[in-house]
What we know:
Blueprint: H1 2-17, E1 43-53, E2 59-71, E3 74-85, E4 90-93, E5 96-102, E6 105-106, E7 112-123, E8 138-148, E9 153-164, E10 175-187, E11 192-196, E12 199-202, E13 206-209, E14 212-219, E15 223-232, E16 237-247
Antiparallel strand pairs: 1-2, 1-16, 2-3, 3-4, 3-5, 5-7, 6-7, 7-8, 8-9, 9-10, 10-11, 10-12, 11-14, 12-13, 14-15, 15-16
Amino acid sequence: MKTNYLKVIVLLIVLFAGQFQMTAQKDEQGTVDASKPTNLYTQVNGAFEYQAHKNGSDLYGTRVNLQYAFNPDNLLLVEVPFLYNEGSNKFGLSDTRVRYFHALKRNITKRLIAIAPYADVTIPTGSFKNGLGSDVWSLSAGVVAGYVVSPKIAMFPGVGFVYVTEPNDYAGKSQSGVNFQTNMSISFSQQAFLFVNPTVTILSQTIWSSEFNFNYMITPNKLKVNASYIPNFTNNINTFRIGATLFL
């Protein structure tokens, strides 16, 4: 099964690579405004990642995120992490994520700038035995709204249905529940902005987490760098990422 997963991932990457010479979808002024998640652009993201776990089996490595905007309203994302587990001394592919995002409505009112449904799948491509994967499929579908509070602040709250399959390698049952996010974008300037995204996922247990993601556009319309802190308060996992994004 893992081989089939890898074939799908390679195929998706090849399809992406064939499109990377295309220009990113830009707004009416011809500029990339990445401070609003409902603005969709073709891009390549790479990040170094460190995960601190309470059991001492810390993970670190790199995470590659490829996004292709078919047009300004439709985007496909494929995220492939390669991590090393200090507890098992194993390195390899972790779980892969595939996400589809569609901006259904834009500029509904002056402040309500978008309504965007999405579908999100996490594929268990990582080895659970080696501490690199979860051994479950995670399926989510929901909707995000974009609301401008002020010229510097915008909110992107979302709600989604979550389904997690029964694991193969350990005792457990399938689960279903809901996920809520309250993503806020704070712009300090045309180049610098911060995402603050408290999230709660309600399954067999309630999982509280958040993300603080600072971004700085080095080259307008082309290159930005970012640093993230992602705490999982329920499971006591702290993730740190430093990366860069190239808009194509």
